[in-house]
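User: My collaborator sent over this chain with a note saying "see what the structure looks like." That's all I know about it. Can you take a look?
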Amino acid sequence: MNDFSLEDYTTFLPANVKEKLEQLRNIIKNVLPEANEVISYGMPAFKQGKVLVYYAGYKNHIGFYPTSKPIIHFEKELLKYKTSKGAIHFPLDKPLPVKLIEKIVKYRLQEVKNEMLKVKKATIKKTSKSFDSKKMLDLIKVADGILHTVPDDMKELIATNSNILEKWNNLTPIQRNEWICWVTIVKKHETREEHINRMLKEIEEGIKKPCCWPGCPHRNPNSRKWIKE
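Assistant: Without extra context I'll predict from the sequence alone. Here is the result:
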């Protein structure tokens, strides 16, 4: 069955059926130039990621199988043709509706692309949930100060805002050091949160260092007498 080709399929078809089948094939091929032509379920088909449409030749008609959703979508335009859940019959003695076939194939292609995109997003979402958040943070450069390193709670908030991240990394090591020290030197959790929120806001506004801050006592011991930790 794997060696069964389109040529094998059409070999014993009557000339008028073969001619109409070739017309349908060319219409589909013009819409799907990147698709592979395969034999699936004993019928010629076009595959791009997955099988998009099938077609087949019969004594009195050409069968076109774009699956059910396109047939439902173009129901009104298909009223003159015999249809079933996933099939359309084109009579041999009538011209093929070229524009309608093109629209159906394009619709089916978009349907499959949407399906594949959903699968891709679901896979990314599943992968991101299983990926350790600490490892994700480690992949983003959040520059440290001249003495102090950026603690994880600060790093996470800086890293998740691209605008703040860029401005943070453009600060000098001394400026970053002042912000880190100003946040980490306080003991109360509530005060630390207030400092972080103010830091994020002011960095986004372009402020380089904390206002009314005497300086990091770990870098300048003379500043310690002005700081109430």
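A starting point for your reply to your collaborator: The first strand starts at residue 36 and ends at 40.
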